[in-house]
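quick one before i forget lol
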Amino acid sequence: MDSGPAIFAGAAFALFGAALLVWTGARVLHRAPVAHGVSPATSITLATLAGVSFVTLGLWCFGRI
């Protein structure tokens, strides 16, 4: 019973992180801005770090099952 919330949280974090990484990669490949009004290097770095952090958090949640 206690594994249900961990599965949901892990799936939500992992899916969001993966989607953020795919979106950031697509924006970079098309040379489009990742965030308007921010330097490209900063926005790419922060978006990538956030995506990796969410995927890692999702995997950690799955490891707690």
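fyi The mean pLDDT is 93.
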